[in-house]
Amino acid sequence: MVSAETLLFVDWGTTNRRAWLVGPGGRVLEEHADARGILSVEPGGWDAAVAELRHVFEDVEPRLTLMTGMVGSNRGWADVGYVPCPAGIGDLVAKLHWVEADAVAIVPGVCLREPPRADVMRGEEVQVLGAVAAGLLPPDGLVCHPGTHTKWIEVADGRIVGFRTVMTGELYALLSKHSILSDLLAGEAADGPAFREGVEHGLGNCDLTAELFQIRARVLLGEAAREDAASYASGLLIGADLRAGLGRTRHDVVHVVGRPDLTALYAAALDQTGRRAERLDGDRAVLAGLQRLAETVL
Amino acid sequence: MVSAETLLFVDWGTTNRRAWLVGPGGRVLEEHADARGILSVEPGGWDAAVAELRHVFEDVEPRLTLMTGMVGSNRGWADVGYVPCPAGIGDLVAKLHWVEADAVAIVPGVCLREPPRADVMRGEEVQVLGAVAAGLLPPDGLVCHPGTHTKWIEVADGRIVGFRTVMTGELYALLSKHSILSDLLAGEAADGPAFREGVEHGLGNCDLTAELFQIRARVLLGEAAREDAASYASGLLIGADLRAGLGRTRHDVVHVVGRPDLTALYAAALDQTGRRAERLDGDRAVLAGLQRLAETVL
Fold first, then answer.
1. CB B92 within 8 A of CB B107
2. What is the nearest CA distance from A298 to chain B, expressed in angstroms?
3. B53-87 pLDDT tens trace
4. Is the distance from CB of A255 to CB of A143 less than 8 angstroms?
């Protein structure tokens, strides 16, 4: 099937891949998700991996294929670098990396250099700048993108002017899979008194590496319920995440973009700081971003 | 071989086991270390695991076998509980758990209950109280026992009056084995400018989960040398450990007990806070502790 009118959007992460076949006006015709993250692609296997995706969509030949995420990292198809802050959507377009002229491009990441601070993002910039362009986010504000590596992103005049990464999701995963806390963290974390107590401690001037061990000690001594441990630990790490991300910012509203289950927990935690969370589904944001980039290119 | 005069001391941890055959006056006749930690012992296999040890020492039948460490935990031979703070060596003797009357005993741990704070130790109490009894540590002071779970122990009048656990070594191991930082942390950490910069950040009011990601970002952007990452990360976690452990204490001297490679790094970090570290080898401390307990029992 040849379709001159369709676009193929790919959000290609480390362990997973999502793709959307999009028609005129940004209408999603079909979507697909699989576990073919970049680490599963052999060197030299990128053309085949993209052909596989096209096959999923009945061998479509899209007018344009746009890719975002870790596919543009030093472990991906090509290391497409980073655009420095402040970065607007025009800066991403200017630095698109064309792996096939006028047909297949990878979006660059965004970096921050303020020695000794340094930070990088790859993927979130498309969501945030796209959502701003589509009117889903305001041109000035604070965006929180929770996940493996939570991003706190300051947007001003529609550009990313600064950001900070917090290793919250990854640390929780390490603790629940491999640490002495793993049996305690086997359950699901949920909002409630234990979660909120954790948030309170994490927001405070706490010593995180000491607080983590306390989770085990309290259960061993019968001072806390075993079934509350996952929610408390999640609250503790999310509280510390908020502390790092909010810093000295003065925003009353935080725009939380991501998976609905995660944004709900962050909204609950933000509520404890007296701030209001505006939630936006991450899929809508990434689609808006890739659509806006495509429109600029075509 | 029957030897009515010998004692068998065992420091039985989660993954490793050390044993000493001790003669009159506490003289070490022979020592042994293997990887038969408590997790390698099948349920019901404890008698055999101890017989195995005796066999290593030519089937000795010691007058007394004293065991300390995780062998007394809920995953060990018997859950022998904890003595509450303040705890002296007499409290450990009073609560020895005899698995074989007058012949084989497991030393209890020590716990702290000051809600919402709670903490536990199992093994370090023998080292600290034994070293105090043997005159290797003063009866009043602050002891730091670095490791997987660093313990900061306040001693007053020869008793443990309070302590705090910090999950430093375990967190470093999780990050270097399983995280996005693992390739950067493959090298050995050593004292030097990168280590000291990490200590400085860790001692400060930093957001640890954000600082950890910075390690990767700085290397990606060429702001820091890849080969410095392990030392910097180690410094960062040890700095945060000191911050948690020193808290509001006013000790000019900290007694650092443990493996010489680790105590050296902690001594360097303590030096940055203007405190003096007195180092004591952990093996000497555990032997002193078990010897003192044995003398009290016999």
1. yes
2. 31
3. 999 999 889 999 999 999 999 889 999 999 999 99
4. yes
